[in-house]
Amino acid sequence: MYMYVYPLVLASAFVFSRCDVRLPKPCGNIPSDMKCVRGGFFTMGSDHKNRNQKPSHMVYVDTFFMDTTEVTAQAYDSCVAAKKCPYQKTWYKGYSGPKQPKVGLSWNAANIYCRAHGKRLPTEAEWELAARGYDGDIYPWGNDPVSCKHAVIMDARGRGCGRKGFKPGKGVTWDVGSKAPGRFGLYDMIGNADEYVHDWYAVNYRQCGRNCRGINPKGPCEGRKRCSGHEKVVKGGSWYWGASHNYSSYRRSQNTRNSNPYHHFGFRCAADSSTKIDKLIIIMNDLLLAVFTRMGISDKKFYR
């Protein structure tokens, strides 16, 4: 079927001369514990929030898979028992129930877990697309203000929507999936546990430059294993904070060892989609780029 659909889309692109046309890869076979986020353009960052989210800018992310929930303590402990993951102590009591998100681990340990399961940590752009969608909404459910109806956050009752933990005033995380899913069927993209992503952290997107723009951006140092002077990006807010930390473009940093200071950050994994027609789509997208460039209507800074 795709052999007929995609040439039709390509022809439409020529007719309407749209410089934002790019063909997304199909989802293919979706793993049972993941959801498909179909590729597309979206506005990343914000000009109206914290300075580290400026400037807002359009990027394109290819189709990918994202874990339906944050990785649980039970799942992580199973990886440790199988000797595929390093032991990571969660320092406070009440945060290690089998269905609670695994928190208090390092970025390094989260990365090892994802790799051990044939996955990887999502890029910041992938994570943000999964949270806010193609229209650049503030939250996974749209633009209605965040509350404990939607997410596990701090409200007037206290941290964790008022659920008491072992340590007074600290609250506690909830079992993953306790709130309704957001777009793409993903749970807890906002609140419950902050989530590590793959990218190194830049103080804002202007400093990051072209590595945070264009197609499938990977952040400073193009996502390489080492990036001197940089920490990792953490997304999504958590049970510990209120509305000021819990929205889709929110970002902060942490070192890869989760030390100085230690934080109760969590994570989820991502994976690339793969189908038999991926190569065809790549060729067609290259053709689109060539045609638009020849017509003088392509933003080379964006596409390159």
Give a brief outline of the structure.
This protein is α+β, with helices and mostly antiparallel strands and 304 residues long. It has helices at residues 2-16, 73-81, 107-116, 124-132, 205-208, 278-295, 300-303; strands at residues 34-37, 40-44, 57-61, 64-67, 195-200, 214-215, 232-235, 251-254, 270-272.
Describe it.
This protein has 304 residues and is of the alpha+beta class. It has two domains: 1-23 and 281-298, no CATH class; 27-274, paralog of FGE (formylglycine-generating enzyme). The chain is 23% helix and 12% strand. It is built from seven helices and nine strands. It has helices at 2-16, 73-81, 107-116, 124-132, 205-208, 278-295, 300-303; strands at 34-37, 40-44, 57-61, 64-67, 195-200, 214-215, 232-235, 251-254, 270-272. The strands form three sheets. Strands 1-4-9 form a three-stranded antiparallel sheet, with helices on one face. It is globular and about 65 Å long. The two termini are 30 Å apart. The relative contact order is 0.20. Mean pLDDT is 90; it is low at 12-19 and 299-304.
Distance from N terminus to C terminus (CA atoms, Å) equals 30 Å
Q: Could you name the CATH homologous superfamily of the largest domain?
A: paralog of FGE (formylglycine-generating enzyme)
Sheet with most strands: strand arrangement:
1-4-9
Oligomer class: single chain
- Give me the secondary-structure category: alpha+beta
Reading the helices and strands in chain order gives HEEEEHHHEHEEEEHH
Second-tier CATH architecture of the largest domain: Alpha-Beta Complex
